[in-house]
Every structure is written in C-alpha cells, then in structure tokens.
Specification:
Blueprint (H helix, E strand, L loop, with lengths): L9 E7 L5 H12 L4 E18 L8 E20 L2 E9 L4 E6 L4 E12 L16
Antiparallel strand pairs: 1-6, 2-3, 2-5, 2-6, 3-4, 4-5
Length: 136
C-alpha cells in the first residue's frame, strides 16, 4: 500500500455545454489549468451517448471490454484522479431501466449540461499510481 498526504491548492469547476465530449473536456481543463496531479471529486449532468470500458479478466494486466451506445442518460457521478497529468476518470450514469459505468472513454456527449469539480493536488506526485505494482 502507498500513502501520501496531499493538500488541495485550488478547486476547478467545469461546466460543459450540449454536445461537448466529457473526457476531452476534462483533458483540456487539466491541461489549461496546469494540473499535474489531482482528484476528480464529482460530477453531474446528462448524456446523449456513452463510451466506457471495464476490466473483463483477472489476469494482469487485465483485458478490457468497451461499451458504447446512445440515448438519454443522467450522469450519477464522475470521479477519478489526475496522475502525472493523465486523466483517469470513471463514470456512472442511468436511464429509467439501467445504471451503467466504468472507465470513461471519449464519446460521452453532453445532453443538457455537465458539471465536474477537480481538486488540484499538484504538489503531491501521484504519477504512476494507476499502474500495476506502483512503487512510489
């Protein structure tokens, strides 16, 4: 187990408009704000399309299964981390029949709006923490 203390130096609040890609917008905001390490605290909104992947094997590294579709969906949450400038985000969303989620991929398009809050913890180096067997 790895443990590091971190302090959030600022919060970034993003509002996305209809048609914008959720992951692309997260990448752009992190880059524009110069965030090298951080925490995606939460997000809400709605989608017209989704694209995510989930692990589908227990071997290391695990295989991934990618899922995509279209329709009207509410975003229940967006969370994750920024590791050395890389966005690692997860998404949970639902409609009247099903809730789904996994690792966020490009192709999640905003329906009405989306809001995401990111805490900048750039003073704490988390680069590589999303790799198997991270030793930092």
């Amino acid at each position: 187990m790895l443990v590091k203390e971190a302090q959030a130096t600022r919060l970034l609040q993003l509002r996305l408009n209809p048609g914008e890609d959720l992951l692309h917008s997260l990448h752009q905001a992190v880059s524009d704000a110069g965030i090298s390490n951080g925490v995606i605290l939460g997000g809400i909104g709605s989608l017209t399309s989704y694209h995510f992947h989930v692990v589908s094997s227990t071997a290391l590294p695990p295989e991934n299964t990618f899922v995509a579709g279209e329709g009207a969906f509410d975003i229940l949450n967006v969370n994750g981390f920024i590791f050395g400038g890389r966005v690692h985000a997860h998404l949970t969303f639902s409609n009247t029949e099903v809730a789904m989620g996994g690792h966020l991929e490009e192709g999640c398009r905003v329906l009405t709006f989306a809001m995401v809050t990111i805490a900048d913890t750039s003073a704490t180096d988390l680069a590589g923490w999303d790799r198997v067997g991270a030793q930092q």
